Amino acid sequence: MHERSGRDGGFERLYGDHKEAVRAYCLRRADESVADDVVSQTFEIAWRRRGEVRRPSRAWLIGIARKVLANRRRSDRRYLDLVTRLAEGPPLGPEEEGAPILAALSRLSAVDQETLLLAAWDGLSSPEAAHVLGCTPVAFRLRLLRARRRLADELGALEHRPTVTFDQDGTAVQVGETRP
């Protein structure tokens, strides 16, 4: 037990000694809110990996921060590119690959879009996506389930297919013949 508390005390010292240097590094590359998030993620990663490194240093922490910033930029860029494509004019024509799914996605609320994109586009697990959205993993899975259902409804509407729902005992019930 003393060994662990000694390592934890060492981590507190590492944090105290280098937090401002890591934050300054991040502030030179991102705005304040992003920098603060990256610093938090950096020390979270450092905490998890503290047993893997013999002598944690400022350089090690800045290396972690660099990778966190790069991952964040890539994720933000992909998300913004997709949002831009979805927002541009009318949905893609039916002859273009992926058009129905993008058209259906563009018809969903921003919350549903973000939920689906965190899971599918960013590849986050339920706990990770829940952390991003500030909810529990169970709440995220429920949001994802509902967003997927709404996406399926939108796809059905685009393809003029009947909408199918399920009653309480799980039996499929067709609602209406076709959607206009």
Give the gist of this structure:
The chain has 180 residues and is mainly alpha-helical. It is built from 7 helices and 2 strands.
Comma- or semicolon-separated keywords:
180 residues; mainly alpha; Rna Polymerase Sigma Factor, Chain: A; Arc Repressor Mutant, subunit A; two-stranded antiparallel ribbon; 2 strands; disordered C terminus
Low-confidence stretches: 1-5, 176-180
Give the name of the CATH architecture of the largest domain: Orthogonal Bundle
Strand content: under 5%
- The portion of residues assigned to helices is 55-70%
Radius of gyration: 22 Å
Give the quaternary arrangement of the chains.
Answer: single chain
SSE string, helices as H and strands as E: HHHHHHHEE
**Residue-averaged pLDDT:** 80
What is the spatial order of strands in the main beta sheet?
Answer: 1-2
**Number of structural domains:** 2
User: What structural class is derived from the secondary structure elements?
Assistant: mainly alpha
Q: Rough shape?
A: elongated
The beta-strand count equals 2
Protein described:
The chain has 180 residues and is mostly helical. The protein is 68% helix and 4% strand. The protein is built from 7 helices and 2 strands. The chain has helices spanning 2-27, 32-49, 58-87, 99-106, 110-120, 126-133, 137-158; strands spanning 163-166, 172-175. The protein has a two-stranded antiparallel ribbon with strand order 1-2. It is elongated.
Task: Give the helix/strand layout.
Layout: H1 2-27, H2 32-49, H3 58-87, H4 99-106, H5 110-120, H6 126-133, H7 137-158, E1 163-166, E2 172-175
Antiparallel strand pairs: 1-2
Helix pairs in contact: 1-2, 1-3, 2-3, 4-7, 5-7, 6-7
